[in-house]
Amino acid sequence: MTDVAQPIPAVRRSRFERLRDSDIWYSFRRSPSAVGAAIALTVLILTAVLAPLFAPQNPYDMAALELWNSELPPIWLEGGQWPYVLGTDVQGRDLLSAILYGSRVSIMIGVASVAVSLAVGLSLGLISGYFGGWMDNVLMRIGDVLLSIPTILIAILVSAVARELLPLGWREAGSAAVLVLAISLTAWVQYARTVRAQTMVERRKEYVQAARLIKVPARRIMAKHILPNTMTPILVAATLNFGLAILIEATLSFLGVGMPPTEPSLGTLIRIGNQYLFSGLWWIVLFPAIQLSLLVVSVNVLGDWLRDALNPKLR
């Protein structure tokens, strides 16, 4: 009696092993610019999130500020003192601490605005592309109106109006929420247009038609079947818009309609430092500007790499 060959059971690979052997990981390893940007962005985010561990001073604690240590230059210049590595501002606030805490505020607002824009854009894009008709026309015309006005002007208008409507005691506490709302008001349109275009293609395919025939609810079809097939361009757009959101927040704070001086973001620090630029205190504006540039450039480099890595025509 001959032995029947037993089938070899399939070995289930972990998610980490699948990622390690994937094309996108291979592309990432072969791109020095993407690796460098990822390392820089990781360091910037970790030092911002863990600012209390790295910062010599809490810039929000007025009791910790020492006016006799104000306007100190960076430590490598004459007159610099330890632990004020990057110097101090006119209030005696350690500039390195202010930059780390300010980066945390900027990153938090960038992440929150992208999350809100994604939630609104994905929902409206799916509804518009799946149902079409008058609903599609109304949503897309609203998007056209918002896109016809420069984003920064809408953000300034929303931020200024919201601050006037809020009670006086809530204005500083609600500054971050107002900025997220102002940035998200126009950012959702790009996601909605992208998802709408993908949804209009996917809804005509056989698997969607089959789901409709067996009476699968439209909500489940959009969430379980159509949405996963639209995530590639959305992921690229979200990465690039993260850097753009940080830049818009910095612009609003620089113009005085963003974060207050009591909770400074990078844009607020640049605005404060710009007032003393011609007084010889160049470090107050230079180092926050460098931090902002590194943060935005790192995000944009990663976004450009991701766009190329996920493009099937370039594989």
What does this molecule look like?
- The chain has a single domain (33-55, 87-314), classed as Orthogonal Bundle (MetI-like fold), CATH 1.10.3720.
- The chain has helices at 15-20, 23-29, 32-49, 51-54, 95-131, 133-147, 151-165, 175-202, 206-213, 218-226, 231-254, 266-274, 283-309.
- The chain is mainly α.
- Helix 5 runs antiparallel to helix 6 (133-147), helix 5 (95-131) runs parallel beside helix 8 and helix 6 crosses helix 8 (175-202).
- The longest helix is centred in the middle third of the chain and has 37 residues, at 95-131.
Topology of this structure?
Layout: H1 15-20, H2 23-29, H3 32-49, H4 51-54, H5 95-131, H6 133-147, H7 151-165, H8 175-202, H9 206-213, H10 218-226, H11 231-254, H12 266-274, H13 283-309
Helix pairs in contact: 3-5, 3-13, 5-6, 5-8, 5-11, 5-12, 5-13, 6-8, 7-8, 8-11, 9-10, 11-12, 11-13, 12-13
